[in-house]
## 1
Amino acid sequence: MSHFILARHQDKEIHMSEKRLTEMPDVASSQAPQINGTLNWVGMNRIALPVTVRDSDLGDSRVNAFVQTYVNLKNPEVKGIHMSRLYLLLSEFSDNKTLSASNLREFLTHMLDSHHDISDQASLNFEFDYVIKRKALKSQFSGWKDYPAQIKATLKDGKVALELGIDVTYSSTCPCSAALARQLIQEAFHSDFEGQEQISRDEVESWLRSDKGTLATPHSQRSTAKIWVKVNENMDDFPITEVIGVIEDALKTPVQTAVKREDEQEFARLNGQNLMFCEDAARRVKNALNKQESMFHDFWVRIEHLESLHAHDAVAIATKGLDNGYEPLLTR
């Protein structure tokens, strides 16, 4: 075969290949749906994405997030949305933008622009572990503590709603159990010193420092405060660290990182001075959040005490109670 004929043959193959590429089927655009109908949300879940989050207290932090991205399908005759467009927009956002309120508002409009003919609502949800360095209670040490967090942005009816979700872990000691333990210690003390008209201070101190002083101990458990807040429109940075601080200050017994004996002793003291049922914890958090109107205008709280006495957990739910605000749903 001559070089001329070979070249023409190769050119023909390239032309056919290009033709096949241009004629690749697009089922989502070319085919009608099997059944016509609108859909509230269509999109993707658990998209792995590194993003930079802007915290109103700590500034910018790089986190590894899992993202949900959705638009509605308002045209009943369209088969599907353009998922690749949403994915590529997210990838570009990760490379060039910081996760702030203003950037999220802008990004939601880009999502709708990419689906202008079939969608008029958009939603995003970023889920990540937010890691903060925390000082020990007494010693000079410190350690890193993670807080599961979520940022949700929704564009609906022309309005953008921004929400922040945070989980804060703490210790809760049962008031009932503490009272029962004190009664047993009192009875043991009475039994050991019965008949003695006088007891010296040294004898009492020695008894309290012995194993008899902890004849019974109240049960406590790791517990979680799950919080959702609706961020105010005048805020651009997300108040992640500030909300965590409000919750931990209200509960008084956040779990610790680096711990020496003096830190553990202080933790025991804080637990003893902050006995609480799940109802007590929910009221503490609700009262504290009610005072934070400069950061957010509504909130939802779920308190979970992961019982050590029972095989089940104790739960309390609280909301701010606004008209058209968060409903007292059991989960979010």
Note: Residues 12 and 222 are 71 Å apart (CA to CA).
## 2
Amino acid sequence: MTNLDDHSWITRGIDPALLSQLERELPPTQLWSLLLAVVEQRATARNAAALAQQWRNDRFVEPAYIDQRTSLELDRHLFAAAAAFEAIELSPLAPLGACSVVAPTSQNRVVSTVRGTEVVSDPTNVLALESARRLRSDPSATVKLATSHRCVRAQAFPKLPGFAAHFRLFCLTTAGHETKDQAFTVDAFIEHIRTHLGALDLLEQHGYEFPERVVTLLATPERRPLADRIAAAFGDLDVKQAELTKPYYDGLRFMINTRGMNGAIPLIDGGAFDWVAKLASHRKLVFVSSALGSQLVAFLFRATVGSRAGSSS
């Protein structure tokens, strides 16, 4: 049986001393320059046929399957719903390790470049960097950011309608100093959930349908009292609760699911993270982030699609 985690073939035939020098000893600028020279030589050797073949077969370069006018209109409504958050447009690139340095994830899940950067795979990690920068300047500030970004991920994705190697996410983040009884965290969660639910309500006025919405709060035993307080703020909703087992989150997570063509779709995901506390070297800083799969919304939940989805269940 093939071991999918065995990457020894990558370095097979390379002198170990040379490999060690490339991996550990060369200064970053020299290494990037060397890799750029290699890539330049590879590009020079390519021809039009190779480009056309890659354009046909490479999942990373194919165009998005959503009409761009649809995406722009969708973003307009989402930003309107998130008026309390500052809108920020990110670079397509982030510092190398923007995800793997602060979160328990593999660098192999992102597309790294030979210039010491990586293609943004999760905008919330990049917004954590920006939030930490601002909070270092003013630790008393509350930083609330929103962005819509096309992400690229190198990991395998489900062979289901609406999933692709690159896709659009609408993200919200809140960062600041924790307050008495962890009120900052509780208030941020409530605002994120309300903002996303308000966004779905607004979209339903513009040709989208989100049937059978379910809000779920997941918490570790230590954070369960916070989940109870958050749930109590939504007395008109049946908020489900469950135990959080994924260490990716800082003890607290929420999800908003709705019914799609193939059953329940995890459309919105958010949680508490320790990323800003790490980046700013300040353990009292809180970071709450959430994201809505806007490309999935455009593909699966427009009213004509929603009606078809409802008849197929």
Note: The first strand starts at residue 86 and ends at 87.
